[in-house]
Every structure is written in C-alpha cells, then in structure tokens.
Amino acid sequence: MNPIILALVTVVLGVIACVTYFFGSNWVLDRIYPDTGPNAGRNINRANAVRPWLFMLPAIAILGLYLVYPVFNSIWLSMMDRSRENFVGLENYRWMIADDKFQESLFNNAMWLIIVPAMSTLFGLIAAGLTDRIWWGNIAKSLIFMPMAISFVGASVIWKFIYDYRGEDQTQIGLLNSIVTSLGGDPQAWITIPFWNDIFLMVILIWIQTGFAMVILSAALRGIPEETIEAAVLDGAGPLTVFFKIKIPQIAGTIAVVWTTITILVLKVFDIVFAMTNGEWGTQVLANYMYRMTFIDGHAGRGSAIALTIMVLVIPIMIWNIRNALKENA
Amino acid sequence: MLGLAGKSPALVWVVNLSALLLVVLWTIPTFGIFVSSLRDRDAISTSGWWTALSASEQSLVARAGAPDDAQQVGGAWVVAGSVFEDGTTGDVTAFGSRAQDPTSNEPGEPLVLRDDGVLEIAVNGDYTITYADQPEGRRGARIFYTTEVPPTVTTENYEAVLSSEGVAQSFLNSLTVSIPATIIPILIAAFAAYALAWMQFPGRIMLVAIIVGLLVVPLQLSLIPLLKFYGVVGEAFGVSAKGYVGIWLAHTGFGLPLAVYLLRNYMAGLPREVIESARVDGATDFGIFMRIVLPLSFPALASFAIFQFLWTWNDLLIAKVFLGQSDNQMVLTGRLVELLGSRGGDWEILTTSAFITIIVPLVVFFSMQRYLVRGLLAGSVKGG
C-alpha cells in the first residue's frame, strides 16, 4: 500500500480508536457505578475518583514507555558490555572518562553551552529592542524568526554553501570565502580549522535560535509597565539607560527561561554536527558521539553511558523547571 | 517606548538601519540557496550566486572557416560565418587571435591575422575575414572571444532532483511520518490535559510536575531501550522493527509532554463559570470536554499542531534510528544528509534538495505564525 494512504487510514483509525476508548470507557464506568438507585451518592463519588485516570491512561502509558522506562533501562544498559549480556559494572564509565573523544565532546559541549545561549539571547534582545521601534517591525520579526522553521539539516546545507571552499586559483562561490578574498585574504576551508570550526557550527544554531529568543523577549518587553519607563525618562534617563537599567531587570525572569530553553537544545545538538563534520576535525559533541558509539560502533553500553551524561547535565534545569511549576500551581 | 526613539531623527535612522542589517544577515543564507537552486550547474560552479542577476562572462574559442573556402566578393576574398555556430549565445564583448591575448580587440575593430587576413566581428557574433589575394589553407584561423551571457532562470534542477534523486519519494515519506505523528499526540494529550486542568483527584499537582520534568528528558536516552523493545514486539508479530507505526508512536511519546503541558495551561485558563454552569446543568465530564473545552481550546491545539508538525518534519535523529534506509522509508532530512555525503560538491543538487525540504515548513510557518508565536509564549520551558 502507498505509505501516504496508509498514513491517512492510520489517522482515521487512530481518531476512531481514541474516541471509542474515551467514550467507551466512560460508558462502562457509568454502567458499573450508575448515578441512580440506592447507592447513587457513593457511586458518583467513586466514578469521579476513577474518571480522571481513564482520561489520563493513554498518556501515562505512552509517557511511561517512551520516556520514563528508558531512563531506568539506560542506567542498566550502561553497565553492560558490547553484547548487552554481561554485567561489567562501571567499566563503561571508566572507559568514558579516559576516552579522548569523550573529553573532546565534553569540552565542545561546554563551549556550545557558553556561546550559543549567550549569543542567541543577546541577538534576540537586540532584535526585539530594534524591531519594536520601527514601523516595519512585524515584517522584520517574521524574517528573523524564519530560520526557526528550517530543519537543522537544511540549515547545515545552507551554511555549508556559505562556508564552501575552493582552491586559491578558482572563483570562490562560498559567500564567506568570497568576502575574504575580495578583502585581500586567502580562502580557507573553514570547517576543517580546529577550534574555529566549532564556532562556525555554532553560528548555525545561533542563526536558528535568535528568532525564538526575539519573539519571547519582545513579548516580555511589551509587558513592562509604561509607568516605570516614564518615571525613568522624567528623571532624565536616556534610551540606553532605560533599556539596561529599567527594562532588562524587569525581564530577567524571561531571559532566564530563554537561556535555559536554548541550553537544553544545545545539550542535545546532533543534526548540525552530524551533517557538517560528523565529529571530524575536533568538532565532536556528546549527542553525536552517543549516536556514533551506539549505531556505528555498535556498543550500546558505552552509548547509554554517554546519553546518561547528557541527562545528568539536564537535571539541574529540570529541577529548576519543576520547582517553578510547583510554585505556580501551589 | 516609541516616543523615545521618535524624538531624535538620527536615532530613528540608526534603529532602522541596524534592524535592516540584522534582517539582511538573517535572510541572506536562505536566499542564497533559493537563488542557486534556480541557476544551472555551470553558472553555480563558475560564479557566486550573488552575481546571478549580472551577466556572466565566458571566454571561448571558435575556429573560422578554411581559407580555401573563401568566396570572391568584389575585389577581395572573404570567409564569413558566426562564432555562435556551435549553439552558444550571447553578446561578444572582446576578441583576439592569440591565446596569450584573447581580448585584444573590441567588436567592430579590425584585427590583422598572421596570414594577412583582416578579421572583423560584430557584437552578434558574425565575423568576416577579408583577404586581398586568394588565400590558401585547409585550417581556419582560431578566434578567441569573450561573451556576455544574460542571466537565466531554470527549473531544470528541480526536474532533475524530483525525478532522479529519490527526493520526490522522500517528500511523500516525510508527509507519511508527519501527519499521524502530529494528530495522534493531540488526541491523547487533550484528554489528559483536561483531567489535569479541571478534574479533582489526589496527586494532580505531582503529575503536572512530572510532565514538566519529562519536557527536558533528552530523547537520546530513549533510543536504545525503545529499539530493543521494538525488536521484541516486531519479532512477536513477525514484522520489521523499523516501520512507520513505530516512528509515529515514538514521535507521539516525545511530543506528549509538551502537548499535555501546553494544553493544560490553556485549558486551566478557560473561564470557570462556563464549566461550572455546564456541570450544574448535569453535563458529564466527557460531555463538557467534547462540547465546551475542546472547541474553546482550538488556538492551543493549533499551536501544538504546528510545533509538532515542524518538529517531526525536520527531525533527523528519530527517523534515522526508527526507520530503515530504503527508498520507501527514507525521509527528506535523511535524504539530504545522504546527498551531502554522496554529492558533496554538486551544489545544484544540494541547494535544490535543501529548498524542497524547507519549503513545506516555510509555508506552514508564514501562514500560521500567529499560532506558533502564541504556543512559544505559552510553552517556553520546552527544550525542543
């Protein structure tokens, strides 16, 4: 069968199955605990105690299987050898700590973690500040936001074209080398220069994430009460002072949210490195190394250990998010 | 806020120019591959895409007719023809008779050849070589000339890529993955979100906290355990572990935390009176959900749908792990990575394929940006 027809049939069947489940289970519940007769009051209470769990059962089952179980299974797997049969204790972790490529990945991830969220937030803030003051701000916002819709792989092709390198005697068709040669410099194979190639890969993610930061920060900037700004202006503050001393402190919470969101994304960055360099020339990162270890080298134990490293790095942000959520709902 | 900038014209200019610079920087990369995808192979590899609108210069060589074939015209012998006889076109901007100096003369400017013939070329490529006496020789003179070819737009890259590189099939495969992977989680999440927003039961806040925690669990952690699980299930049912059902459910699982979180936040903000009064009128939870909450939650449903569609369409990792590498399972992102490896320098293939992969998300993005922004503002703790 043509896959696209299969997909559409699945959608229809899935919708019918879901509706049947929710409707059917409710109907059954109402039959078991009828809201009439001698025990009506008790029955209604019991039905109301069960009903939420019927509504949540599919979601809980899927979340359990796809996100919760894998965490614990990964911990177990990370203590197994290549064949996944023999228990080796902490051997994979010992290997990991001593491994050069792992250290390189950790170092590169740390660089990504420092540079990408900072630059995306900074550019996002600048873009938000500028576009809120011009009459064509919405068009400008749309265009800066656009890379957000582009896949990391698509973005990698777009930027690989910009970084394209040809021999010195040839016409440079890559934008970057063309600019460099027109300024009198020598063309470079940018993505093979250690250290700097990391920066060139980060540019891609910054390019994508700036729009996200801009949209959120722009909304926060507009939410600042006018009075605080007017008061500052009456006291003689210039536009820059107003921006840094009045506006920034008031949106500090939002900046933190943007920063952590991009941080989590950065920890999991895979596609860009995979498509641009596949970890060559000193650009390896944890997510790509995990993929390589598991699916190319075929060592699920070591792969799991690397994946758990990413998890451990995410946990502080996770706790922070949970605490905020509990505070809001308390 | 606007008033501050409006006071000083200089500041207005600075703000406008800075914004323009930012917009140009952010759009030029995408614009570059779009322009390149419309240029032909030779043009892409000989000049930068930013020159696409200016005419491109080419240096070519043609061989004139043999002196033996010269015709007597009046008192002289003339060899005539056109340098474009081989099918090339354009305007001649310069010509010469020696390889060392191929641009010595301009059209209309006569050039004396080594055998005393006088060569003249018009802009349109017609040339004449005039001899005073009857010339001899079987080989015609070589003419070096430079032409300016006007810029051309071609769709042949798209035709080539869609017909031969498997991109068309991958396009369908991507749709096959994305559509169910967008709709299934919405259905499941909507019910759970309603329960978490409007039903009273012990442990509700705890569950919300768990969902928020699950938002940031790296999916790298899930790959091996799930692949193992799929292997067991596939074996039990005698089907391959890699297939569309598996990836639909995987995307559902990874998208659910955000779906539940977004929808719960939105539903919890609906007016309490509407729901309470329906309850007083005897409506069941199921009825309230279907008739009141679901229709009112349309903006949140749309926000999540756009997120999930963009995410599943643009995903590479999950497709690489849970789908096979055969033609009828490879999605667009996977195809693009493969082409990047196998057709590394063929930019006419790469730029065109890249543009095909991003066109659907761009259309979705520009047509539904409002909902996307709303979703972002509501769910900005999500890690992506």
UniProtKB/TrEMBL annotation, chain A:
ABC transmembrane type-1 domain boundaries: 106-323
Domain of life per record = Bacteria
Intracellular or extracellular location(s):
Cell membrane
InterPro entries referenced in this protein's UniProt entry, alphabetically:
ABC_transporter_permease, MetI-like, MetI-like_sf
Keywords from UniProt, A to Z, are: Cell membrane, Membrane, Transmembrane, Transmembrane helix, Transport
A single Gene Ontology CC term: plasma membrane
Could you state one GO biological process linked to this protein?
Answer: transmembrane transport
Q: Kindly give the Pfam families that the UniProt entry links to this protein.
A: BPD_transp_1
How does this protein sit in the membrane? Answer: Multi-pass membrane protein
CDD domains in UniProt: TM_PBP2
Give the stretches traversing the membrane.
6-29, 50-72, 110-131, 143-162, 199-221, 251-276, 303-322
Has keyword Lipid metabolism? Answer: no
Q: Main localization of the protein?
A: membrane
Q: Does the keyword Transmembrane helix apply?
A: yes
Q: Which family does it belong to?
A: Belongs to the binding-protein-dependent transport system permease family.
What's the protein here called? Alpha-glucoside transport system permease protein
Q: Which organism is it from?
A: Pontivivens marinum
UniProtKB/TrEMBL annotation, chain B:
Q: Which keywords appear in this protein's UniProt record, sorted alphabetically?
A: Cell membrane, Membrane, Transmembrane, Transmembrane helix, Transport
Report one GO cellular component: plasma membrane
Membrane topology, from the record: Multi-pass membrane protein
Intracellular or extracellular location(s) = Cell membrane
GO biological process annotations for this chain's record?
transmembrane transport
Q: Offer one Pfam family short name for this entry.
A: BPD_transp_1
Residues that span the membrane, as ranges: 12-35, 177-198, 205-227, 247-267, 288-311, 349-368
Task: Give start and end of each ABC transmembrane type-1 domain.
Answer: 171-368
Q: Which family does it belong to?
A: Belongs to the binding-protein-dependent transport system permease family.
Protein name, please?
Answer: Alpha-glucoside transport system permease protein
Please give the organism: Pontivivens marinum
